[in-house]
Design brief:
Elements (H helix, E strand, L loop, with lengths): L8 E6 L7 H16 L4 E8 L15 E2 L3 H12 L5 E6 L11 H7 L5 E5 L8 H13 L2 E4 L2 H9 L8 E3 L13 H4 L8 E6 L8 H14 L3 E6 L4 H7 L2 H13 L5 E4 L5 H10 L2 E4 L10 H8 L3 E4 L3 H6 L6 E2 L5 H13 L1 H15 L4 H17 L27 H5 L10 E2 L2 E2 L5 E2 H16 L4 H18 E2 L4 E2 L2 E2 L12 H17 L3 H14 L9 H14 L7 H21 L10 E2 L5 H12 L3 H17 L16 E2 L11 H18 L2 H12 L12 E2 L4 E2 L2 E2 L4 E2 L4 H24 L12
Helix pairs in contact: 1-15, 2-3, 3-27, 7-9, 7-13, 17-18, 17-19, 17-27, 19-20, 19-21, 21-22, 21-23, 22-23, 23-24, 23-25, 25-26, 25-27
C-alpha cells in the first residue's frame, strides 16, 4: 500500500438516517460534505442498526451490522478489509454500539487493516473502568482521533494518556446559511411581531427544558408577544422505554405555570432545509442542558453558526464556544437567572445583534465545506502515519487464539415448560409433567435466567412477560407474616405446604437480588428491591450453609445497584462469618471443606467466599474460597481431565468412597459460576479453563461422552446415570444449562470485545 497516495475511497462507520439520532445526522452531513468538496473521492457508509431488519437506507449504505450481534462486527471488518477503502472514519459514541461501554466496536476495529480516523462525540471526565478501557484502546488502534473542542483535546491527553500528536481538533460542521433578520421568516409561522425563542434536538430529561418553562412567567410579563418553540421528536430510546412521558410532563408544567399559549411543540425530526427555516425565525436560541460533562453539542454548533444570539447553561462545549461575549451562560437549573438572561437580551437589540454578528463570523470557519477539508487532511495524516495494526496483513486465527464457541441461546423449552402461573418442575422427555406442579426454587432460577438474558440483549418482548410470570409466582409464594416463601404448588394452584425449605428461601433471595441489581425493567426492579428488603431478615434464622450461600449471592447481586444498604451489609458479614467458622472447624489439610461430606451445589460455598473476599475486602474469606474451590475442582475431575461431579446417589463422605452417579446439571452450573468468579477475581486463566471444562460436561465431555443439552428442544436432560442419560428435561436441569450458558456468554462477549489475553481478565461489573 502506498501510504502517501491520495485518498480515493473512504468508508464511514456510525449510525445513519433514517435512524433518528444526532450521530446519524452528523455521519450523513460529514459524508455529504466530503462528497461535495471532493467529488472524485468515492465514499460509502456502514451503519450500525439498533433494530432488527435495519432501516430503509439510501444507496450510499453498502453494508450494515447489528448493535448486539458480536459476530456481525467481525464480518463487517472482513467486508471493509476487502473494500479497497483507503481510510475508515468511525463515529464513536458509547451508546450506539453493543457490549459493555460499547466495547463490541473494538472487535471490528481490531480486525481492521485500514488506517482509522475516529471522531469522539463523547469524552468523559470520570469514566467507568470499561469506558476508560474502550477509549484507551480506540486511541491505540486509531491513526488519528478527531475532537471538537479544546477541552476534549486536553482530556484525551490528561485522562486517557493519548499523545497530542495523534489528536486533530476539528469543529462540529454547520450549515452554510446567510446572515438574516429573523423577521424575514416569521410570516411563515404566523408569528409576525412576536419574540421567538427556540430549542431543538431530540427530547430527553437531560435537555433541561423545564427550567426554561419555569423562567417564562417572569419573561412574558415584559414580553407578552413571546413564543417558545420546542423542536424535536422524543429520543427513540426514551420513547421505547417510557413512551412520551417527558413531553407530556412538559405540557403539564406549561399548563400549571399558565403559559400554554406561549409554547409551541413541533414533535418531529426535521431535515436540514426545515432546520434552516426554524433557525431563521428564532431571535434567541436556548440550550438549557442539565449536565456539564458534554464536550460536543451539534445543536449548539448549528445555532451558533447561523448567527443566533444564544443563552446556555455552562456545559463544556458552551463554555468554550460562547466565551468572550459570544453568548450568555446561566447556572444549571437556575430559572431565575434564565429569565433575567432572556429579558436582558430581548431588551437590548444592540447587544443581541453584536452577539449574533460575532457568532456568525466565527462560524464561517465551521461550515461543512471547511470541516470536510479538515477531515481530508486528517485522512492524509492517517495514511502517512498508520498504526502498526492497520498495516498488518490479514491474520488467520488458530484454534488456540479463537474464543470458545458456545451453543445458541434458545428459549423454546423454557417457554414450553411455563404457563401463566409459572414454570413446571418436571418433564416427561420434553413434555411438561403436570402432576408435579410448580415450585419457588425453579421460578426463582427462571427469573434469574431472564435477567441474565436481558443483559445479553435478547429480545425484551420475549423476556418481560416470562419474567413477570416468574416474579408473580414468587410474590404469591411469599407469606408476609412469616416473611418466608412457600415452595411446592400443585397443578391445581393449591399450595402443598405452609413453609418452604431453607434452600428455597435462599434461592428466592438470590433471584430478588439479581432482579433488583441487574434488571433494566424498572417496575420489576422496584418490586424485587422491596421484596428483598422484606424477606432478608429471616435469612439469618436459616440453619443451612447453602441457604446462607444463596442469600449471599442475592446480596452481592443486590449491591450492584444498592450497595449502601446497611442491613444487607450486616447480613453479608454475619453469613460470611458463619461460613468461615464452619470451614475452620471442619477443614483439614487433605479435606479443605466446610462439611464432612460433599453433597449438592458444592461450588456454591467457595463461590460466595471469593465474592466476599473481592467485594468486602475479606482476605480470610478470599483465601478459603480459592483453596476450597481448587480442591473441589480436583476432586470433581476424571483421570482423563473432564468434569466428573459428585454423584447424587450417596454423595461423598470423608474417608469413604465417592459416588460417581447420578451426575446432576446443577453441579456443572455451580462450578461454572464459581470458576468464572475466581477468574474475574484473580486474573488467573486456570479458572477460565476450569469453567470451560465444567461447561463442556453439558455438551458431552463427560464419563459417557453423551450430550445432556438437546439442541432440538433447547432443553437439558436431568442427569447422567451410570449407563445412560436421563432423557427427561425438567426445569432445574434446563435452567442450570441456561444460566451456565448465559454466564459463559457474558464473559466471552467481553473477552472478544476487549480482546483480553489469558491471565488478564475483565473485572466484574459489580
Amino acid at each position: 500500500m502506498n501510504l502517501t497516495s491520495e485518498i480515493k475511497k473512504v468508508a464511514f462507520i456510525g449510525d445513519y438516517p433514517p435512524r433518528q439520532c444526532g450521530i446519524a445526522t452528523f455521519t450523513h452531513d460529514l459524508r455529504g460534505a466530503m462528497a461535495l468538496q471532493y467529488p472524485d473521492v468515492e465514499s460509502f457508509v456502514v451503519p450500525v442498526n439498533d433494530q432488527a431488519g435495519g432501516y430503509d437506507y439510501s444507496s450510499e449504505v453498502r453494508f450494515e451490522f447489528g448493535e448486539n450481534d458480536l459476530d456481525s462486527y467481525r464480518r463487517t471488518a472482513d467486508y471493509l478489509n476487502f473494500s479497497n477503502a483507503d481510510v475508515v472514519c468511525l463515529q464513536h459514541e458509547y451508546g450506539i454500539y453493543g457490549g459493555a461501554a460499547g466495547s463490541f466496536i473494538l472487535a471490528l476495529l481490531r480486525d481492521l487493516r485500514i488506517p482509522l480516523v475516529t471522531t469522539l462525540h463523547t469524552i468523559l471526565e470520570n469514566p467507568t473502568s470499561d469506558q476508560r478501557r474502550v477509549l484507551k484502546e480506540l486511541g491505540d488502534i486509531s491513526s488519528r482521533l478527531a475532537v471538537m473542542s479544546e477541552r476534549g483535546k486536553k482530556m484525551l491527553q490528561q485522562i486517557y494518556e493519548i499523545p497530542v500528536e495523534k489528536i486533530d481538533l476539528i469543529p462540529h460542521g454547520i450549515l452554510d446559511t446567510a446572515f438574516s433578520d429573523s423577521n424575514f421568516y416569521k410570516d411563515q409561522f404566523g408569528v409576525e411581531g412576536k419574540q421567538v425563542l427556540l430549542t431543538f434536538g431530540l427530547l430527553s430529561p437531560n435537555k433541561g427544558i423545564e427550567n426554561v418553562l419555569r423562567a417564562l412567567p417572569e419573561v412574558v410579563k415584559k414580553f407578552p408577544n413571546l413564543v417558545y418553540i420546542i423542536l424535536g421528536a422524543t429520543h427513540p430510546n426514551l420513547l421505547r422505554e417510557h413512551g412520551d412521558a417527558y413531553r407530556l410532563s412538559l405540557e403539564r408544567l406549561a399548563q400549571d405555570l399558565g403559559i400554554k399559549r406561549y409554547i409551541s411543540f413541533h414533535n418531529r425530526f426535521v431535515d436540514v432545509e426545515e432546520l434552516k427555516i426554524f433557525l431563521g425565525v428564532a431571535d434567541i436560541y436556548i440550550t438549557p442542558y442539565t449536565n456539564a460533562a458534554q464536550t460536543t453539542s451539534g445543536t449548539l454548533a448549528y445555532a451558533f453558526g447561523s448567527g443566533k444570539a444564544i443563552i446556555s447553561t455552562p456545559y463544556w462545549h458552551a463554555e468554550e464556544l460562547l466565551a468572550d461575549g459570544r453568548g450568555v451562560l446561566v447556572p444549571f437549573g437556575d430559572s431565575k437567572a434564565m429569565a433575567q438572561a432572556i429579558i436582558g437580551l430581548l431588551q437590548d437589540d444592540n447587544r443581541r445583534n453584536a452577539m449574533r454578528k460575532q457568532a456568525y463570523l466565527l462560524g464561517r470557519e465551521m461550515i461543512w465545506s471547511k470541516t470536510a477539508e479538515h477531515y481530508m487532511e486528517s485522512f492524509r495524516r492517517a495514511r502517512r502515519h498508520p498504526t502498526n495494526q492497520s498495516i498488518r496483513r490479514l491474520k488467520v486465527r488458530t484454534l488456540e487464539e479463537e474464543r470458545l464457541e458456545l451453543p445458541e441461546l434458545r428459549l423454546d423449552h423454557l417457554v414450553r415448560m411455563s404457563d401463566s402461573t409459572g414454570m413446571y418442575q418436571h418433564a416427561i422427555y420434553s413434555m411438561p409433567d403436570f402432576s408435579h406442579g410448580y415450585c419457588t426454587d425453579d421460578n426463582a432460577r427462571a427469573l434469574i435466567s431472564m435477567v441474565l438474558l436481558e443483559e445479553l440483549e435478547m429480545e425484551e418482548k420475549a423476556l418481560h412477560p416470562l419474567a413477570e410470570t416468574y416474579a408473580s409466582f414468587m410474590q404469591y409464594a411469599f407469606d408476609p407474616e412469616a416473611k418466608r416463601f412457600k415452595n411446592f404448588m400443585g397443578f391445581d394452584r393449591h399450595w402443598l405446604e405452609t413453609q418452604g425449605s431453607d434452600d428455597s428461601q435462599g434461592r428466592a433471595l438470590w433471584a430478588l437480588g439479581t432482579c433488583a441489581g441487574r434488571s433494566r425493567h424498572h417496575p420489576l426492579q422496584a418490586w424485587a428491591a422491596q421484596m428483598f428488603e422484606r424477606s432478608l431478615p429471616t435469612a439469618l434464622d436459616l440453619p443451612s450453609p447453602r441457604s446462607w450461600a444463596y442469600t449471599l449471592l442475592g446480596i452481592y447481586e443486590y449491591f450492584r445497584r444498592f450497595n449502601g444498604d446497611r442491613m444487607a451489609a450486616q447480613a453479608r458479614d454475619e453469613l460470611t462469618r458463619r461460613l468461615i467458622e464452619i470451614f475452620e472447624k471442619t477443614a483439614t489439610d487433605d479435606w479443605p471443606w466446610f462439611e464432612a461430606s460433599l453433597s449438592y451445589a458444592n461450588a456454591l460455598l467457595p463461590h460466595v467466599l471469593i465474592l466476599s473476599g473481592r467485594w468486602a475486602d475479606n482476605r480470610s474469606a478470599f483465601e478459603i474460597g480459592l483453596r476450597s474451590l481448587r480442591w473441589l475442582t480436583s476432586v470433581q475431575k476424571s483421570a482423563q481431565g473432564h468434569f466428573r461431579p459428585i454423584g447424587s446417589i450417596g454423595f461423598y463422605t470423608r474417608g469413604e468412597k465417592r459416588s460417581n452417579f447420578d451426575q446432576q446439571p446443577i453441579e456443572a452450573h455451580c462450578t461454572v459460576s464459581a470458576c468464572l468468579e475466581a477468574y474475574r477475581s484473580t486474573n488467573d486463566s486456570h479458572w477460565h479453563d476450569e469453567a470451560k471444562i465444567a461447561f463442556e460436561w453439558f455438551l458431552g465431555r463427560n464419563d459417557l461422552g453423551l450430550s445432556l443439552y438437546d439442541p432440538k428442544t433447547g432443553g437439558c436432560c436431568d442427569g447422567l446415570h451410570v449407563d445412560r442419560v436421563n432423557q427427561n428435561q425438567g426445569a432445574e436441569s434446563t435452567l442450570a444449562f441456561l444460566m451456565a450458558l448465559s454466564e459463559m456468554e457474558l464473559l466471552e462477549q467481553n473477552l472478544k470485545a476487549f480482546h483480553t489475553p489469558p491471565g488478564n481478565p475483565l473485572g466484574s461489573s459489580n
